[in-house]
Amino acid sequence: MPAAISAHSLSKTFRVKVRDPGLSGAVRALVRPRYREVQAVREVSFDIAPGEIVAFLGPNGAGKTTTLKMLAGLLYPTSGSVQVVGFEPWTGGSAFKRRIALVLGNRQQLVWDLPAEETFLLNRAIYDIAEPDFRERLAELVDLLRLGPVVDKPVRQLSLGERMKCELAAALLHRPPILFLDEPTLGLDVSAQDAIRRFLSGYRDRHGATILLTSHYMQDVTALASRVIMINRGRLLYDGALEALVARIAPTKRLELVLGSPVSAESLATFGAVHSYRFPHAVFDVPREAAATTSARLLAALPVADLSIADPPIEEVIRLAFAEAPEPE
Amino acid sequence: MRRPRWPALLASLVRLNAVEELQYRANFVASVLATSFWIATALLTLGLFFRHTTRLGGWDYWEVVVLLGVFNALTGVIESVLRPGIGQLADDVKSGALDLVLVRPADAQLFVSFRRLDLWRVTDIVLGLALSGYALIRLGHVPTIWQSGAFLVALVAAAIVVYAIWVALMSLAFWFVAVENLSVLFDALYEGARYPVSAYPGALRFVFVYLLPIAWATTVPASTLTGRLSPVTALGAAGVGAAAFLLARLLWRTALKRYTGASG
Amino acid sequence: MSTATVWARRYGALIRNAWLVDLQYRAAILLWVLWGVTEPAIALGIWWAIAGAGDVAGYGRADFARYFFAVMLVNQLTIAWDSWYLDRWIREGELNFRLARPLHPAHEATADNIAYKARSGTILLVVWLVTAAIWPAVRLPLDPARWALTALAVLLAAGLRFLISFTTGLLAFWTTRATAIMELHAGIAMFLAGRIAPLALLPPPIAHLATVLWFRPMLAFPVEVLTGAVTSTPELLSGFAAQVIWLALWLAACRLAWRRGLARYGAVGG
């Protein structure tokens, strides 16, 4: 079966104006600007089969969104080639745009002042969806996303989670085979994130859509995607199943404590590997399986005011997995 | 002996500010160019009127240019102080940012009015006064000490009247929260200040002097400067300014009481 | 489904959407309309005073009154704010999702204009009718031919001003000063398009410039058709011809700017 999305040696280089520090530099930037080249995406290649859910993972500025924009036809590659459902995105035109949906986490497409229903009706006209198809798909999406009480309220009155669900519904009315999501769970609370992940998974199962999402949350991957493409500094670091990735990285969880009263560093060390300690914040890296029990021990023995368990940040994962030095900020 | 650190510190502060200035220099130049363009447009419009008449409401060309200069100076006050300050009140009420202001111990009206200044719009004031000065030369009229003093009083009074009008308009934001462009009301009204009040036919003249006293903003100061009105008028202008301010203050407090739900 | 039906449905939905949004902002729109009539109202006041009992270059007081009321209405029906919207779309990332769907953003912009003008034009028409009931000076004959020709001239002028505004907005692909350029154009149009005075009152070389360029086609010509200043067939034909020619030229400029701008956008992102 031909790939739904295929990228070959995809590269994107931007020219950025250089401004030297200092007064003379500011003058020079006005009079004779200099440019340097930023390689946002370097020779990225992958093939995605129809019906796959793939997560593009990487820290901010890694090149995920740039890659996504090239796949969606908003940017054209500096070199390399890309094919999405048989089209070259940049030149695909209307026929291509009908086969994709693009949802941007930080930029909404719903009409702000009107109920989401109105955006749905608008999309029906824009994508030329036949009336019976529209009714059927709308009913399905409203049901799956539990949008019943929400579709007739003005979008500006909705919570962030409700808005994102409506965005997804609006994007899927024309039942595109390809769905591009840029940071879809950004800023959402845990239950909303969960609901969206379950929805996407269920939607793919029902309709075989190919879903590509960018994220810097590990949970998006663990809960949703079977395949992870890890990008850092424009380069593709890893492309494969999640389990293999997890096996590759040090299987740790990060415990963050806020202590009520000072505790000696030595006594902290008896509980596990201390990542950092500056009163009142103490951070531990503990094995995944031991996270819960270690937390219980800490809570029992120490004056803990607050405790949270999280995955190590993506940057750490990359560092641990690929032995790359962290990028200087 | 230790070398003092402050010269080095001062030098780097100056350098830092200069670098920032350079960024804003482009905006500054753009601002001056824009103001010059609009002054030129206004002069051309005036030229067009005077192509078909010799006097506008009894004023001759250069007298009206004096008024145009005052108009621009006043615009500078509005753009540098009023619009960025009290002009944002409607947005603050809508977004709830006003609540943060009300919590502070300072007088809310004072704070809202002066919290943000667009300093480079002060060039409008300079350009406007320069234009008036040039027009006076062309008129061959050198204002006496009394006239100049009266002019300054009248100009300050005009600024206060305009400020009071802004406060009154913005107080409407407490009642009409959904209207996002209340400042447009002022812009519409302010157009009337471009020409001497006597240039308008009867009905409009009545509106601009008594109902929406925008005439006081430009006609009176310009008149005291050119000698049309005696310097004593400035006292009247000061009185109007004070009255306007008090009325506006009253309106503000009423609106605020309603907003905070206090009885009264 | 035929192409015509598809487009009818699309425009129907787009206009409906824009109309509903405008409904939410109806108070603000009323204020914009008020602001829009201030400049002509004040110009009328000044010319009224200057004309006195006589006339200025053939325009008596009543003529000025009719002229400026016509300017108020025609201006409201032809003015285009799209340069500001495009500028914002391009600079604030609101163009991306519009580019990703199978509808050229110009259609959304056109539909917005139709909805807005239907609303604000109706408001002004009603104001004019009410004023005409009390003030004989602003009355115009209810000659169907004249109103039909005016409608055509207004339609062409609205299209022309839309293209000018849209093309200027596209400059935002290259510069942050696109709105400044639009303001410059508006400042010049104040004279050349006949906003501040009928073109007959301008110095002849300036009036000639206005006729040769797109300024008379964009406002003054439809106003003149409405007030009856232009009645003879050759005058009407040349006026309409000028509108069509400039419409075609600005359309070409718009397409060029869009192609080039989009290519640049695809290179540098947004």
Question: Would you write up a description of this structure?
Answer:
The complex is a heterotrimer of chains A (329), B (264) and C (270). By secondary structure, chain A is an alpha/beta fold. Chain A folds into two domains: 211 residues, P-loop containing nucleotide triphosphate hydrolases (Rossmann fold, 3-Layer(aba) Sandwich), CATH 3.40.50; 72 residues, Alpha-Beta Plaits, CATH 3.30.70. In chain A, 36% of the residues lie in helices and 29% in strands. Chain A has twelve helices and 13 strands. In chain A, strands 5-6-7-3-8-9 form a six-stranded mixed beta sheet, with helices on both faces. Chain A has a four-stranded antiparallel beta sheet with strand order 11-12-10-13. In chain A, helix 4 packs parallel to helix 6 and helix 5 runs antiparallel to helix 6. Chain A is globular and about 70 Å long. With 264 residues, chain B is mostly helical. Chain B has one domain. Helix content of chain B is 72%, strand content 0%. In chain B, helix 1 runs antiparallel to helix 2 and helix 2 packs across helix 7. Chain B is globular. Chain C is mostly helical and 270 residues long. Chain C has one domain. Chain C contains eleven helices and no strands. In chain C, helix 4 runs parallel beside helix 7. The longest helix of chain C is centred in the C-terminal third of the chain and has 36 residues. The mean pLDDT of chain C is 95. The chains are: A alpha/beta (329), B mainly alpha (264), C mainly alpha (270). Chains B and C meet through helix 1 and helix 8 of B and helix 2 and helix 8 of C.
